[in-house]
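Hey,
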Amino acid sequence: MQDMTSAQTVDVMLSARRRAWMAEAEEFELAAHFADPHPGEAVEQQQQQPAGSAVVLFGEKSVRLGYDGTPEVAEFASLEIAAALNIIREAADCLIGDALSLRHRLPLLWQKMRDGFLRVGVAWTLVAKTASLPLQQALQLDRELAPLVEGVSSYRLVATAEGLVLELTPAEQAQDDYERAQASRGVWIGQSGFGVSDGSKRPAQACDLDHTEP
């Protein structure tokens, strides 16, 4: 390293950061992959079997853990991830749901994350900021945001997403969303620290992956 120029040092630093971000993204990507063998349709088919047929979990139903346009999954599928990662079930639900939301609603940003150009934390924020949009509008926003990822700061990317969401949201709905957000604001406390829920998605503590089972 002593022989590297300043420019070479910066290039190596950027490469190291990209590798770290790709490794960080792998767990998030695997959460979506985990849902694939646990589709909601399979649960519905099991529940329609004749009496006496084997059913994996009695009373299980299909649920949508992500936002509009994401596939349904088996209700209890997240229990396996929760146990393995030693987190509460709500956090596992959130992990799977947000991973599916990014993959299905913001596929270009999903690929940017996989390629190491977008950090998972920023991707997670973008999922939350676009949660209120129907699928087609989310896909439209994805097409507009993806080309910006490598050219602007994370702060600017999120701010741009917020502006686009406002443009795509009818005024009446925007007011309703704002009032719901204000009503659900609050402080959450977890093992990793504390913060403020902005009401844009699930309760903050449910998505805190450091919130382990006691």
